[in-house]
Amino acid sequence: MHSAYGGQGLEDEDSGKMAQLQGRMGRNFQVMLDRSVPHIGRRWALFCVIVLIYLVRIYFLDGFYIVTYGLGIYNLNLIIGFLSPQTDPEADGPSLPTKGNEEYKPFVRRLPEFKFWYRSCKAFVTAFFMTFLSIFDVPVFWPILLMYWLMLFFMTMKQQIKHMIKHKYVPISWGKKQYGKGKGGGGAGGSVGAN
């Protein structure tokens, strides 16, 4: 219902402008993310800077260990997703070839590298801003949290490595294989496509 002074119309106009600004900022942010996809080294360097800033802040504040512990658990979960195949070989059967004459199927991650990077960065930035709120600074004995996190990390990694060995997959690739390069490399004349 509109008032006699037109107050409702101004509120609708302001919310419309705010929605437009939000949409424009969201699109600009998405364009920036899309442009960063091929720059893996730069993205991970940015991640290292974010982590370093967070760790320096935690060191000087000498607190927020619960936030850091939660951040560590979340990132451990992301690492597991990054190292795991998209389909579970135990539930769906083997998706990777088990014999030499079967068709090659590349390793597909449950959590792709870009999403892993983006979620980790977002988690560290969120945790950084949480350190400005004293409600999250719960006094705890941090060595116990560290020991518990290390125990979780090693137990989880042990289980993940056993899974990788059992199902014969390696979640890390070092790029595309190149044939014909180096000493004694295949074919006459070197690389493919060279005339």
From TrEMBL:
<feature type="transmembrane region" description="Helical">
    <location>
        <begin position="140"/>
        <end position="157"/>
    </location>
</feature>
<dbReference type="Pfam" id="PF03248">
    <property type="entry name" value="Rer1"/>
</dbReference>
<protein>
    <recommendedName>
        <fullName>Protein RER1</fullName>
    </recommendedName>
</protein>
<keyword id="KW-0472">Membrane</keyword>
<dbReference type="InterPro" id="IPR004932">
    <property type="entry name" value="Rer1"/>
</dbReference>
<keyword id="KW-0812">Transmembrane</keyword>
<keyword id="KW-1133">Transmembrane helix</keyword>
<comment type="similarity">
    <text>Belongs to the RER1 family.</text>
</comment>
<feature type="transmembrane region" description="Helical">
    <location>
        <begin position="44"/>
        <end position="60"/>
    </location>
</feature>
<dbReference type="GO" id="GO:0005783">
    <property type="term" value="C:endoplasmic reticulum"/>
</dbReference>
<dbReference type="GO" id="GO:0000139">
    <property type="term" value="C:Golgi membrane"/>
</dbReference>
<dbReference type="GO" id="GO:0006621">
    <property type="term" value="P:protein retention in ER lumen"/>
</dbReference>
<dbReference type="GO" id="GO:0006890">
    <property type="term" value="P:retrograde vesicle-mediated transport, Golgi to endoplasmic reticulum"/>
</dbReference>
<feature type="transmembrane region" description="Helical">
    <location>
        <begin position="66"/>
        <end position="83"/>
    </location>
</feature>
